[in-house]
Amino acid sequence: MNRIGRFLSLLLVAGLCAVSPWGTAAAADSMAMYGPAAGAVGATGSSADSELTVRQGEFKRFVPEKIAQLNRNLRHNRDKMDIIRIGDGRFRARFHQIDKSSVSSKVSRSQSKTSPFVAILSYQEKVFESYGASAEACRSADFAVVEILPNRHIFSYSKGAWQ
User: Fold this and answer.
1) Would the pLDDT of 120 be above 60?
2) CB 62 within 8 A of CB 162
3) pLDDT in tens, 81-118
4) Is 150 exposed, middle or buried (CB count within 10 Å of its CB: 0-12, 13-18, 19+)?
5) What pTM value is reported for the model?
6) Concatenated DSSP letters for the chain?
7) What is the C-alpha separation between 124 and 97, in angstroms, rounded?
8) How far out from the chain centre does Cα 101 lie?
């Protein structure tokens, strides 16, 4: 089995523990269901549970920085809007932005010696549009959500850091 296949199979086998980067109520509910009390794959005792808790805390601090980086790197973010003239002569402005309220993450142990922990970061990317008679008019107009794109990223904990 190739390296990615092993990684994904470890991820599927692992019991996942929810971590909320912003402390939302929904994430707190899922933490109760998936938290260390429910048991994690490979956990052998309280020291193993405390290590998982430490990694969850580290990932919780890592997530807001990662979301900010992902927002900056979007091809058409609020600062780099896509503005085009459409068929009727008006202009359309469009940009993408990650919905922070939709962000959730799960941290779990893996059976890998080089990456003992894995995490899944899930969020929704919203696409906003507005229209106007000029490029400046559509920039300052009210934007409406026209599309919601689900996203999921997998991270591994290796060499003392989330990657």
Assistant:
1) yes
2) yes
3) 999 999 999 999 999 999 999 999 999 999 998 999 99
4) exposed
5) 0.68
6) --HHHHHHHHHHHSPPEEE-SS--HHHHHHHHHHSGGG--TT--SHHHHHHHHHHHHHHHHHHHHHHHHHHHH-TT-GGG-EEEE-TTS-EEEEEEEEEEEEEEEEEEE-S-SS--EEEEEEEEEEEEEEEESSHHHHHHSPPEEEEEEEEEEEEEEETTEE-
7) 9
8) 11
